[in-house]
Amino acid sequence: MIETETEKPSIFSLQFSTLEAWLKDHKEPKFRAGQIFDWLYKKRVTSFDEMTNLSKDLRESLSNDFRLTTLKTLTKQESKDGTIKFLFELSDGYSIETVVMRHDYGNSVCVTTQVGCRIGCTFCASTLGGLKRNLEAGEIVAQVLQAQRSLDEVGERVSSVVVMGIGEPFDNYEPLVSFLKTINDEKGLNIGARHITISTSGIIPKIYDFANEKLQINFAISLHAPTTEIRSKLMPINKAYSLDKLMEAVNYYTEKTGRRVTFEYGLFGGVNDQEEHAEQLADLIKGLKCHVNLIPVNDVVERNFVRTSRNQIFKFEKILKNRGVNVTIRREQGHDIDAACGQLRAKERKEETRG
């Protein structure tokens, strides 16, 4: 079979040590790895030909073995609050979303790990049409680089990364971990571990694996319900990985790492946002080293949930605080654009998001 461009691995999928090993196999000195990483992550070149301090033969070898992933911008939406949402096209024609969020403390990029999602959360547009494929580590890295190139134009930089875009990160575990190590590498994008957050809907075996990685990366659970009955209605994954087993895994994580976990809790009117639900949530997480992030959900046309009123959100928060729970309400961003995860892709690429 003739090798096509898309069948070559992305150069961004290589961790520094892997690149050194490749160079050794090609009878090249190890220090070339530093030069290549400098071109990729500091100078942010878009072709191997731009790596002018490498020999022509080495550049040809790189081009023969790898592709330098670039993402085509299909749509770019900018909010009044500075949020930027990109719809990128991949080399095979599929599309993904990436979001740049501006905060007082810096710029955060939210990346996607899969084309679509198989988890099937009933409130999420990302799952429309199901899972098409996993992303390579390099395709996840490329999203951060594309966001950084956009910020380069205004003299700003990416200061933090959240893995909360389209897809379930732990359903694409090995590329995810490779991505995390590359963006954390001081020779790569040099984003501090404590400025990276990974979120999962609750694939329990991978929570144990992630705890054993001993990374200092922030960890979040998409919880969204205080009881197994409500969670099963919102998140079908709860039928495979039950709430009680999930809490056991979270306990293991906090004990193994010494780090707290964040519970993401989207509020849906009349479903999980009443006072009794707040009390049940406080009971569920009692004694855990944790934080609760209450999320006023964005409206998604394709899903039928009523937005919780502001007064009810504050009542819910007050009950948790009175019970000693560390809780905040997530600041809404990009409300005037297609802010909900998967929403822009669902609108612009209907052929991908049909069942």
From TrEMBL:
Its EC number is 2.1.1.192. One of its GO terms (biological process) is tRNA methylation. GO terms for molecular function: 4 iron, 4 sulfur cluster binding; metal ion binding; rRNA (adenine(2503)-C2-)-methyltransferase activity; rRNA binding; tRNA (adenine(37)-C2)-methyltransferase activity; tRNA binding. Its main location: cytoplasm. It comes from the Bacteria. The active site is at residues 97, 341. It catalyses: adenosine(37) in tRNA + 2 reduced [2Fe-2S]-[ferredoxin] + 2 S-adenosyl-L-methionine = 2-methyladenosine(37) in tRNA + 5'-deoxyadenosine + L-methionine + 2 oxidized [2Fe-2S]-[ferredoxin] + S-adenosyl-L-homocysteine; adenosine(2503) in 23S rRNA + 2 reduced [2Fe-2S]-[ferredoxin] + 2 S-adenosyl-L-methionine = 2-methyladenosine(2503) in 23S rRNA + 5'-deoxyadenosine + L-methionine + 2 oxidized [2Fe-2S]-[ferredoxin] + S-adenosyl-L-homocysteine. It is an enzyme of class 2 (transferase). Signal peptide: none annotated. Residues 103-336 form the Radical SAM core domain. Coiled coil: none annotated. S-adenosyl-L-methionine binds at residues 167-168, 199, 222-224, 298. Keywords: 4Fe-4S, Cytoplasm, Disulfide bond, Iron, Iron-sulfur, Metal-binding, Methyltransferase, rRNA processing, S-adenosyl-L-methionine, Transferase, tRNA processing. Specifically methylates position 2 of adenine 2503 in 23S rRNA and position 2 of adenine 37 in tRNAs. HAMAP family: RNA_methyltr_RlmN. This is Probable dual-specificity RNA methyltransferase RlmN. The lineage of its organism: Bacteria, Bacillati, Bacillota, Bacilli, Bacillales.
